[in-house]
Amino acid sequence: MKKKLLALFLASIMVLGLLAGCGGGNDKNSGGGSNDGGQQQEVNTPDPAPAPETGGDNTPAAGSAGTIGVCIYKFDDAFMTTYRNALQEILEGKGYQVTVVDGNNDQAKQNEQINTFITQGVDALIINPVMTSAAATIIDTVKTADIPTVLINREPTAEDMAAYEKLVYVGCDAAQSGTFQGELILDTANKGDINGDGKVSYIMIQGDPENIDAKLRTEYSVKALTDAGVEVEELNLTRGDWDREKGQTICANDLAQFGEKIEVVFCNNDDMAVGALQAIQSAGRKVNEDIYLVGVDALDAALNEVQAGNMTGTVLNDANGQAAQAVKCMEALLNGSTYGAGEQSVYVDYVKVTPDNVSDFMK
Ligand code: GAL
Question: Residue 297: CB within 6 Å of ligand 1?
Fold first, then answer.
């Protein structure tokens, strides 16, 4: 099943601009980084797996390919946990010495971590910024240090990226995930209008609104309905910061306030949706009968709920595909490729997940 999924992930990679999945760019063939790392920074990850001396099993010796610093905005995020584990596995499998650090949702802390990696002389950086608005500063820092860098998950502006030719962003088109969420509702028997009053009344549980994923999922999920001619009514919109417990609390409060008026619960991600489901069940409501619930990410917990009929659907946010693409782009940069304005974003497709295809996504 994993292989089938991997094939699906790789097949779904969609590239914008001239950047052919990071195979393009202006290859100066300047070769990879040349330094040998230095002191490891203290991290909250397990020790690197012991590496074979010779790579006799085809696995290169750890560190033989170079040293990579990976900055994650916070470890305590369900989707980014899957993503960072995939990154670490791919990089270590290729013989890189990898250090993954937890930004604890604190941009000042992450800035220090980036500086520490630079002082240590890493060959390349992969950075999931804490704040999108910090991208310009991060880009300035890595440019000054001349470190090839792949930004992930939080998309900076094209203008910010254009400042540094050894920089690529790997992510997804957040609008697409929102559209897919709306389509999941349009695909239901009554197009979301359970009580037949001619409009779809919903609550929106939003991620961190500083993040473009949160903004665009919020906008495009509803737009899919209105574009299809469906009237909508927003009962409430509350930020839940991607967090399961907040998702539960928000949904419980909204159910107490709006009761049966709520026909659809849109959650910007699955962790909040799984929290919302607990509130829905506690309120005695039944998903797909008297309320609809959708998320994004295709976390294992959400896939189980989709299969059990407790979530209407979710949208695969392809952590494995994005991790593979980020490493591919990093290697292109290490091999001397550079990218101009308009060539620096690489998008991996989202995929709609419903009870009909959910088993394809389960391990
Ligand atoms: C989104 C993902 C969320 C959260 C967020 C962090 O793409 O759907 O669950 O991980 O990234 O920036």
Answer: yes
